[in-house]
Inverse folding.
């Protein structure tokens, strides 16, 4: 494989065109049928816009408006430094101060993390995508500009760096070239976490400069807090949509389905990622079928934003994260439920169960559970009549990073699949060592400019390789194969990935959630819940 | 045979006699002792200050990374208590044995590096394990010195003294050899490997060179001047008995301890302080899975943290240094929604 030209850390501040280029010829090879270049999707070139910053590489994720004057540039650089300083104060960054300080001070720069990164590998080891590259830039800036004696000791300890608008704008874009899957952190011999640096960088830009990916902030968490959902659905629309889904489920399964809304005193408040309701209605529909068949006392909430479990703050802004999590908990408190169950969405599950665990206090600290555990209990309780022969097709499982590597929910979904899918097989590696789908940290919903091309070719490449390898015994399109991804964001990425590579037509691979497989195996509902033709 | 030979250490003490050259030597000897004390003090203070600084940072949000070693039967595949239905009603399994099983192979054998970066392990492991042996060697020198002060001869003559004698030689010899091999191999990688090219700073080269110099001097001293480490033990004895002018017996041994003292003081001031901060990385971050329950210590700390005043200046936060986290995370959201509703 041809290696890209070696780029140095300090090059980030040199304004000489693009810092790096991404050439499909350098990318990691894929197994058949994608070893043939004719079967690969085209690389859509970036159409440069004069009004936004695009000097990092051949794509744009954040689209930062170009400053109009030198003075404005300097102001932004100053703000960046001021934000960086705030990251190291307990008042402004108590949630991550200890973690950030340790990671900033102890990296041995051994590069063990590099081989763990799917983006670095898939890009053909492009230096700019090395997990430690952006960390090193930040480390050098911090040591040079904010530490006493930094002009000398910073260079001595870490190496040269220049802080200017080029550095800042490239760093902002670069913080959106990492899925924050933390696979690199898992391999670090010391425990240093480059993904955390990405996270903190995004926070700095959002919380101090008001710079964030539009899909995450303006059309994401802000829209969710104002309207109720990042999909734009207000409470009336979401109820209306669910009514349609109920009707569809009733017709499809032969079982009367009526989703309960705002049922005070229900045992369980189920919170879906509202993207499911819009893009994959069979998923919330299947949940309703399972819960009704199992006789669970459950409800959805129509409070803003409790019918949408997304919490994009997890990826870029601590305050947005807390705002959404608090609203979710308030809705549960109002209904008096015994617990919240988070649907098939990895980041929603992690943000509400793990991260918000140290945000919610008193009566808002309502027990929260993952759908995987909850479903496992139902499946093995005997309350559902299951016929595994209905799932007699090859199935593999994608492990959502947030739920698995970062929460340790590994086995419940596997026990279900091993029980109801006779042709289940694992990917390699799997479980906590899995690879990200390439859509993590918000990428799955980011498609501006040619960013979708970038994630299809680079961030999703390793996952595609894994999926193809898992089904390598029969990749013919005639054999229908199911890629189970119990996470809404992962499904968004897999949808785009499989579509771009024409994987249904070429290999017969369909993706979907876990509940669809469970309902497909239920012998007391009409057969054929999974509709292969809806690939 | 010198008439001033010590009955315990067999060292020649004739240089203790007062003459100009002897006085200079005595001053230098005392200075080295003082330097060693100072180095030790710097080490202790630097570690204590860094430890305190990290330890006293406020509670952070959970940032678990699995596998978590104390998860008991689930640890081997990376599972957590979240796999249990109604996990908050069940007792949490906390396996100390599991933690030891996770920690010891990492601490002693650098398991993560073995698994994820084998070529580097072959360089890094000898260096680190060599240093462990040298720490053991220093400990044995201390034990031997205490034994000598207590009247127990440390020599090949048998008994406990002989055990200390031979163990010291084994730990020292292998420690020097392994750590030198490792340090040279690491420096070689720093200078030649494209993977780390561009990430190697002057400090990296200096650090490894300093280690190589100190270890090489130590090893040569052992080979050429102090094959039983009795001179080294004598220096430790003079340190613990505060006999600052006790002759060291060899310029090489003096140089050896001068360099070791520099290392002892220097290491905790650098990123190499990971020898103890790694504890935080594992126990306080990756493995910190302690849930927050109503009325718990964690809840109290969260409440305190939510009261910190915030000065982030992005428009959607409107933090002005007067509002705290709780204000921004609750009231501001409602205000925005109301404003938005008014506009419409």
């Amino acid at each position: 494989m041809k290696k890209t030209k070696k780029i140095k850390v300090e090059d980030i501040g040199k304004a000489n065109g693009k810092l790096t280029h991404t050439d499909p010829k350098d990318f990691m090879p894929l197994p058949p049928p994608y070893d043939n270049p004719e079967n690969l999707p085209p690389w859509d070139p970036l159409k440069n816009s004069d009004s936004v910053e695009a000097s990092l590489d051949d794509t744009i994720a954040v689209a930062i408006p170009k400053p109009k004057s030198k003075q404005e540039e300097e102001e932004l650089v100053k703000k960046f430094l001021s934000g960086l300083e705030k990251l190291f104060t307990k008042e402004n960054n108590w949630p991550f101060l200890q973690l950030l300080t340790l990671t900033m001070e102890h990296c041995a720069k051994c590069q063990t993390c590099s081989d763990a990164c799917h983006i670095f590998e898939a890009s053909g080891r492009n230096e700019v995508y090395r997990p430690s590259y952006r960390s090193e830039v930040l480390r050098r800036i911090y040591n040079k500009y904010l530490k006493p004696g930094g002009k000398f000791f910073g260079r001595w300890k870490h190496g040269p760096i220049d802080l200017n608008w080029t550095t800042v704008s490239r760093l902002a874009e670069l913080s959106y070239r990492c899925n924050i899957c933390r696979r690199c952190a898992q391999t670090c011999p010391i425990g240093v976490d480059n993904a955390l640096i990405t996270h903190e960088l995004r926070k700095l830009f959002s919380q101090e400069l008001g710079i964030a990916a539009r899909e995450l902030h303006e059309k994401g968490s802000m829209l969710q807090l104002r309207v109720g959902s990042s999909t734009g659905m207000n409470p009336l629309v979401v109820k209306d949509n669910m009514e349609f889904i109920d009707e569809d489920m009733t017709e499809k399964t032969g079982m009367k389905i009526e989703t309960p809304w705002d049922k005070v005193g229900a045992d369980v408040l189920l919170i879906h990622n509202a993207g499911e309701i819009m893009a994959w209605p069979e998923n919330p529909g299947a949940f309703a079928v399972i819960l009704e068949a199992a006789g669970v006392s459950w409800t959805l909430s129509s409070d803003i934003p409790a019918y949408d479990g997304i919490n994009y703050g997890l990826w870029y802004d601590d305050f947005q994260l807390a705002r959404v999590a608090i609203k979710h908990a308030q809705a549960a408190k109002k209904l008096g439920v015994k617990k919240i169950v988070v649907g098939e969405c990895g980041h929603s599950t992690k943000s509400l169960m793990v991260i918000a665990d140290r945000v919610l206090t008193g009566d808002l600290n309502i027990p929260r559970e993952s759908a995987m555990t909850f479903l496992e209990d139902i499946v093995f309780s005997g309350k559902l009549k299951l016929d595994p022969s209905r799932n007699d097709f090859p199935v593999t499982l994608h492990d959502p990073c947030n739920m698995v590597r970062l929460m340790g929910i590994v086995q419940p979904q596997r026990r279900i699949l091993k029980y109801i899918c006779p042709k289940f097989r694992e990917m390699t590696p799997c479980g906590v060592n899995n690879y990200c789908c390439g859509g993590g940290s918000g990428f799955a919903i980011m498609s501006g400019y040619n960013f979708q091309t970038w994630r299809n070719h680079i961030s999703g490449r390793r996952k595609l390789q894994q999926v193809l390898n898992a089904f390598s015994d029969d990749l013919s399109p005639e054999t229908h194969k199911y890629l189970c991804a119990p996470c809404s964001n992962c499904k968004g990425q897999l949808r785009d990935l499989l579509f771009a590579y024409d994987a249904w037509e070429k290999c017969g691979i369909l993706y979907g959630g876990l509940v669809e497989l469970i309902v497909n195996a239920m012998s007391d509902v009409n057969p054929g819940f999974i509709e292969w033709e809806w690939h | 045979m010198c008439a001033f030979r010590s009955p315990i250490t067999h060292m020649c003490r004739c240089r203790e006699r007062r003459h100009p050259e002897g006085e200079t030597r005595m001053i230098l000897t005392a200075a080295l002792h003082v330097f060693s004390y100072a180095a030790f003090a710097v080490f202790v203070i630097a570690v204590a200050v860094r430890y305190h600084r990290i330890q006293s940072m406020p509670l952070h949000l959970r940032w678990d990374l699995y596998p978590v070693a104390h998860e008991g039967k689930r640890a081997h595949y990376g599972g957590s208590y979240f796999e249990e239905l109604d996990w908050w009603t069940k007792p949490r399994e906390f396996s100390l044995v599991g933690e030891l099983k996770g920690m010891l192979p990492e601490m002693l054998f650098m398991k993560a590096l073995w698994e994820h970066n084998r070529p580097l392990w072959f360089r890094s492991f000898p260096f680190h394990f060599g240093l462990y042996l040298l720490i053991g060697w220093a400990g044995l020198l201390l034990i031997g010195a205490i034994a000598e002060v207590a009247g127990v001869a440390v020599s090949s003559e048998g008994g406990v003294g002989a055990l200390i004698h031979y163990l010291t030689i084994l730990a020292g010899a292998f420690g020097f050899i392994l750590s030198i091999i490792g340090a040279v191999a690491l420096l070689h990688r720093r200078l030649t490997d494209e993977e780390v090219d561009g990430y190697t700073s002057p400090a990296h080269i200096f650090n490894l060179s300093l280690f190589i110099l100190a270890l090489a001097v130590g090893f040569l001293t052992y080979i050429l001047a102090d094959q039983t480490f009795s001179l080294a033990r004598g220096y430790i004895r003079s340190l613990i008995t505060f006999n600052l002018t006790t002759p060291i017996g060899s310029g090489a041994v003096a140089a050896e301890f001068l360099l070791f003292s520099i290392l002892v003081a220097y290491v905790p001031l650098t990123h190499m302080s990971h020898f103890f901060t790694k504890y935080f990385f594992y126990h306080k971050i990756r493995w910190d899975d302690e849930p927050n329950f109503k009325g718990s210590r964690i809840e109290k700390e969260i409440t305190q943290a939510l009261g910190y005043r915030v000065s982030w200046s992005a428009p959607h936060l409107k933090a002005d240094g007067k509002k705290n986290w709780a204000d921004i995370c609750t009231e501001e959201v409602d205000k925005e929604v109301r404003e938005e509703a008014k506009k419409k």
